[in-house]
């Protein structure tokens, strides 16, 4: 049933060809950064990051900031999860952690020579709403004291509808949040039991209604396919019920089973997982359900209403892809706070210490808690811009790249263009004289197309880390 009837642009049309997807959907990075996180190293230090922040001088060309705060606590472990988190029932730990996060916010803000403006803010986890209302207010008061949050900015938070009550939803909107991210893996009780996350549809619906009544402008729904005990019918029913809640965005995530890396996944029985063929059917059917309901494909498993800010930004060529997913604020510098959080400022990335004791110890020493990072080369920046363009716009014009980086695109990327010829022959894309255009059948595989331009994957000796399946 068509729930939303706004027009879909040619850019946002999608074709789900099972045979092509099965052929090309191997393992690969999601490109929340380029180079990817496995390329970070300890040669990039806290002093390097401090120097980069100090160089961020005010001026007419200085873009507003994006801010991310990692809040790692969860009351219990969801067996499917692959996030950096801390499982505890002791909410006093959040007070201690918040003390250190506020100290880090002050340490970073002290390095910037001016009061920076913020256009995007995201609280992620873990479970950000593990924090009490008072703790959330304290965090936001600190951020507002050190930064200017711009009116109309994209301020989002991940919430757990199992624990959030109506007064907290109202408080979040009062604190300035406009976007809400909700996870609802599967409505089947057998699946919920298998992944240790019992979440009622009624409770989830109530939170969405509260958010709408308070004035949240965008609600995102995260669904996971490939979970234990999932069936085609359970995924279809879950998505049907989710559509009735009328969110603005959907993200379909592929469950990756890596029990040797994530110990809690050992509670999941391999024999209860759907086969790769069934998972592909789940994704194909879900894609059809969403597009039939009027949602447009943004890319990388993300869908939105044509009238949502993400779809509008994509049509305008202003979409960006980062650690928090798709964003309407292209190329903002990102200052991140909290354990394991990743910042992107200028031509650098850096990641904080990943263990709480290390994070606390470094801040106690008066230093920025940087554990590792990377200073991007000219080639890194060039390839990052190409990957961003493909993932966000499904096309790449050669001329702006040639002007910006003073290269002959076809000579510089002669090998890459040759590698794209089989994809072009399969109908995934077209290579024209001055551009590459990803076709509707190639859009579900844009990650595989982007991988062609990843220099680190082109050298077997440097291939390094393993990645999850694209689909």
Descriptive labels:
alpha/beta; pyruvate-formate lyase- activating enzyme; globular; 3-stranded antiparallel sheet; 471 residues; Arc Repressor Mutant, subunit A
Please give a structural write-up.
Strands 9-10-8-7-6-5-4-1-13 form a 9-stranded mixed β-sheet, sandwiched between helices. It has a 3-stranded antiparallel β-sheet with strand order 14-15-16, covered by helices on one side. It has 2 domains: 35-335, pyruvate-formate lyase- activating enzyme (Alpha-Beta Horseshoe); 378-462, Arc Repressor Mutant, subunit A (Orthogonal Bundle). The chain is α/β, with parallel strands linked by helices. The protein has 17 helices and 19 strands. Helix 4 (133-146) links the parallel strand 4 (117-125) and strand 5. The mean pLDDT is 92. Helices cover 38% and strands 20% of the residues. Helix 5 runs parallel beside helix 7 (201-214) and helix 8 (232-244) runs parallel beside helix 9 (276-292).
How is the topology of this model organized?
Elements: H1 18-24, H2 46-55, E1 65-71, E2 73-74, E3 86-87, H3 92-111, E4 117-125, H4 133-146, E5 148-159, H5 166-174, E6 179-183, H6 189-195, H7 201-214, E7 218-225, H8 232-244, E8 249-254, H9 276-292, E9 296-299, E10 302-304, H10 309-315, E11 320-322, E12 325-327, E13 333-337, E14 342-345, E15 348-352, H11 356-364, E16 370-375, H12 378-393, E17 395-397, H13 398-405, H14 409-412, H15 414-425, E18 429-431, E19 435-438, H16 446-451, H17 455-458
Parallel strand pairs: 1-4, 1-13, 2-3, 4-5, 5-6, 6-7, 7-8
Antiparallel strand pairs: 8-10, 9-10, 11-12, 14-15, 15-16, 17-19, 18-19
């Amino acid at each position: 049933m068509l729930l939303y009837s706004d027009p879909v642009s040619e850019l946002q049309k999608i074709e789900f060809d099972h045979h092509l997807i099965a052929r090309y959907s191997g393992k690969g990075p999601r490109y929340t950064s380029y180079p990817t996180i496995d390329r970070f190293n300890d040669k990039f230090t806290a002093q390097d990051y401090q120097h980069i922040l100090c160089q961020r001088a005010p001026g007419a060309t200085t873009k507003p900031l994006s801010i991310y705060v990692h809040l790692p606590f969860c009351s219990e472990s969801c067996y499917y999860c692959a996030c950096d988190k801390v499982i505890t029932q002791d909410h006093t730990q959040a007070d201690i952690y918040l003390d250190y996060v506020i100290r880090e916010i002050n340490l970073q803000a002290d390095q910037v020579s001016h009061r920076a403006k913020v256009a995007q803010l995201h609280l992620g986890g873990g479970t950000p709403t593990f924090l009490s209302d008072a703790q959330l207010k304290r965090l936001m008061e600190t951020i507002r004291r050190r930064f200017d949050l711009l009116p109309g900015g994209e301020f989002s938070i991940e919430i757990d509808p199992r624990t959030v009550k109506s007064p907290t939803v109202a408080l979040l909107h009062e604190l300035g949040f406009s976007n809400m991210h909700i996870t609802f893996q599967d409505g089947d009780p057998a699946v919920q039991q298998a992944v240790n996350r019992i979440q009622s549809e009624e409770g989830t619906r109530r939170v969405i209604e509260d958010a709408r009544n308070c004035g949240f402008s965008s609600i995102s729904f995260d669904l996971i396919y490939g979970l234990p005990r999932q069936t085609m019918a359970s995924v279809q029913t879950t998505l049907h019920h989710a559509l009735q809640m009328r969110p603005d965005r959907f993200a379909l995530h592929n469950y990756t089973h890596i029990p040797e890396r994530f110990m809690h996944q050992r509670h999941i029985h391999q024999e209860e997982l759907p086969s790769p063929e069934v998972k592909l059917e789940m994704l194909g059917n879900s894609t059809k359900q969403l597009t039939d309901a009027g949602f447009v494909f943004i890319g990388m498993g993300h869908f939105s209403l044509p009238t949502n800010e993400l779809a509008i930004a994509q049509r305008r060529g202003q979409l960006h892809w980062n650690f928090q997913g798709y964003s309407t604020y292209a190329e903002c510098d990102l200052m991140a706070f909290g354990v394991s959080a990743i910042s992107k400022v200028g031509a650098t990335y850096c990641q904080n210490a990943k263990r709480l004791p290390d994070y606390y110890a470094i801040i106690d020493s008066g230093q920025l808690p940087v554990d590792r990072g990377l200073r991007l080369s000219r080639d890194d920046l060039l390839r990052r811009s190409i990957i961003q363009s493909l993932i966000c716009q499904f096309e790449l014009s050669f001329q702006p790249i040639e002007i910006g980086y003073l290269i002959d695109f076809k000579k510089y990327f002669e090998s890459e263009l040759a590698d794209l010829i089989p994809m072009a022959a399969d109908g995934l894309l077209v290579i024209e004289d001055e551009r590459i255009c990803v076709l509707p059948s190639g859009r579900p595989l844009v990650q595989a197309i982007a991988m062609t331009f990843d220099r680190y994957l082109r050298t077997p000796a440097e291939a390094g880390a393993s990645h999850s399946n694209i689909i």
